[in-house]
Amino acid sequence: MAHPVQKNTLYVGGLAEEVNESILHSAFIPFGDIKDVKTPLDQATQKHRSFGFVTFLEREDAAAAMDNMDNAELYGRVLTVNYALPEKIKGGEQGWAAQPIWADADTWFERQQQEEEMLRLQAENRAAMEAAEELDRKKMAQEREGEKDEDTETKDMTMAETED
User: Rounded to two decimals, what is the model's pTM?
Assistant: First the structure.
C-alpha cells in the first residue's frame, strides 16, 4: 500500500556519527525556516541510527533543500535526502497512529479555516452562477418578447398592405 508523502518533512540518510540535531539543523537552515529536527536514537547504543528527519514550515523550502542536499557531503559522508513517509504502525495500515492525538493540533485549525473559506467561496460562486443564469433567462425572455412584437408589427404591416 502506498503511503502519503509528507511534503514538508525530509528523510536525511547517511549521517556520520558526529552529526547531531544541531549540526543537521545548521546544514538545512539556509533553505528556509525549520519546524523540527529529529535523529532517532538506537536504544542499545543511545547514538543516532545514521538518519534523521528535518521538517520545514513551507513545502517549497523542503523541496529546495531536497534538491540541493541530496547526494551532498556532510562530515565526509554522502547524504540521501528524500521526502519522508509517515510512520507505519506494527500490524496496521493507517500510519500516523504512533503519534499522539494532539500532534496534528496545529494544522487542524488551519484546515478547518481553509474548509470554511472553500465553502464560502463555493457559495459565492453558486450565487453568482444563479444570478448570471437569471439574467440570461430575462434577456432571452426580452428577446422573445421583441420577436413577438416584430411578428405582430410584420403581421400588422402585411394586413395593412393587403387592405390597400
Answer: 0.51
